[in-house]
Design goal:
The protein is mainly beta. It contains 6 helices and 25 strands. The strands form 4 sheets. The chain has an 18-stranded antiparallel barrel.
Amino acid sequence: MVKRRKAHSALLIVFSASVLAFWVSIAAAQEPAPAEPARAAEPAQPAEPPTKPSPPEAAPPAAATTPKVDATARDNTGTLMPSELATTPPGTRPAIDPTSDQQKLMNQGQERPFGEGWLGGRSSEIYSEDWWGHTRPTIEMHGYFRTRGELFHNFALGRHDDPTLSSAVLWAQPLDQSYTQLSGLQRQVLLCGSDGNGTCNNKSQATANLRLRLNPEIHISDNLRILTQIDLLDNLVLGSTPNAYAMKPGSSKNGYVSAGYNAYAPLGFFSTTQGSPTAGVNSYQNAINVQRVWAEYLTPIGQLRFGRMPDHWGLGMVANSGDCIDCDYQSNIDRIMFVSGIKSLDLYFGGAWDFISSGPTSASAYDVYGGQPYNTSNLNNVNQWAAFVAKRTNPDLQRMKLARNEVVLNAGLYTTYRSQYIDVQAGQTPITFDSAANNNGMEARRAWAITPDVWIQFLWNKLRVEAELATIWGSLGYSPAGTDISDPIKLRQWGLATQTEYRAVEDKLRVQFGFGWASGDPNAEGLAPSSNGLQPSLSPNGSMTTFRFNPAYMVDYIFFRKILTRVEGAYYFRPSVEYDFLRNPNGQKFGGSAAVIWSRASEFMQTPGNKRDLGVELDAQIYYQSKDGSLNDNPDKMGGFYAALQYGVFFPLGGLDYLPGVQGTLTGTSPTLPSYNLSTAQTVRLILGVLF
């Protein structure tokens, strides 16, 4: 009986406690909620792999995009977990509240005093310090990796030029090639044959190179970002840094000298590994080159850009960013720029202050330990100011107009003005004042130039007609050739580039025609300048009228791209056709193209043979692009694996031949002299790349 009463008493106590807990919970529910509600536990689940955060433009201003990850914390599946959950035992992991940061910001707004002009009237108006405290910077990585193999055959075109006369040499003969110069001097390499005393004859040069280009973008917010471009092993020639070769600094007279023999690789034949390119040791440059770093800040009235950035306009005839996978050159500029516009009119305009050349600075070898180099002479500066205005139709609106067979017209004007008062004497770089040097190692320059560049684009249905016209107009008051400021050299240069393209068969077929013209100079010797100064001129006090395209504007494989390195003092006609045999919406495609390039000199007096016709080149390629690229959703960009096999042959014409009478005279002086007839050049190129 006593035991039964004790049991009833225990049940009564439990029941009373339950009723009391029930009323306490009801009372608590009627009170105001705390600032941050507690998170309820959820059943344990395997952590999902981290996903790429949304772009800053798509994220709310203060909302969290991705939980912070602690690299040392992993769940039982090996997947990274958020650091705030790393210490929570499996099975009791709290749920992640995506509105947590927004709730905190609202609470901060409620806790701050109002009425003094500091805060807005709503909690959604956040202080700047609150905004920066809750941003989630993201990094986007783009770029490419490429490996190229190239064969250059007979790029000297069968000419027998004297290599000591750089102005007359179009392409230097290979070092292992035996030939006879125009003067009759024989340059023999007697190291071939079974006995090692035979004549070496080799007109071909084979090479391969690689580059990894990274374009990291640091997105701090939807209106602020930092962009960079970093090249790793930039155009490194494969096999050029073996452990059998090393240099070291020598005297000021000798520069760099051999570091001696490597006992384990005394000859190149015994090389066992390749070293990282290091300037002054085994290369002219280091393994990592930072090409660009600049910032972009979007304000309510326009965008501010500052830093070292790409410079590109129109077709890229003058300023070309050189961002293609097969590009070797690019235009980088140190600039402070502001861009604005009227979006409803698709009208954009802006201006820039450019730092072209600052002359000597106070930099020294001890700056590696700290300090700030500075410009030591403002009058040496090459100052440049730029302004542009352009009408560029919104891409979405442009596609709609073209689909309705309406005409779309885009155009713009980009103008730069540069000047320089005095300059460092040619071949000198004064760092500090030297009383013994004439004028402290400087000379008058009194140079100025204005470069207006007009670009226009006509679009209708599947037709595109695009053109760029530019001129360089100015003067050079004094040059190393001896011209003084009383009779300045005039700069009068003109350039024109056009592209016409028609697309058919669901854009798989592209028929194109290109034309380009660069003004020549009848008073200059050769199409290309010499390697030791300004282009030689027959009239010291005349004008400099040879216009040169940007080398990143490529039209062929051999003549303009390799032999001359760019279009200069010439004009060309380029019909071409390109067809995608296989093309999928995901970006995968396989196709081929062919082009014919006929080149002529703008001034026949500028050519070696004093004739206008320079040559005819035939180029062809087949290409393949995979579907696994991150940029394949953009039809104007490439992504994933890319490969191309290219072949070109160049037939030189009279403009690249010898002057009349020279060939017959040389042939008649000795029966042992070889033939001096021009011969064709050929190239084979293989490009392998990964774009992302």
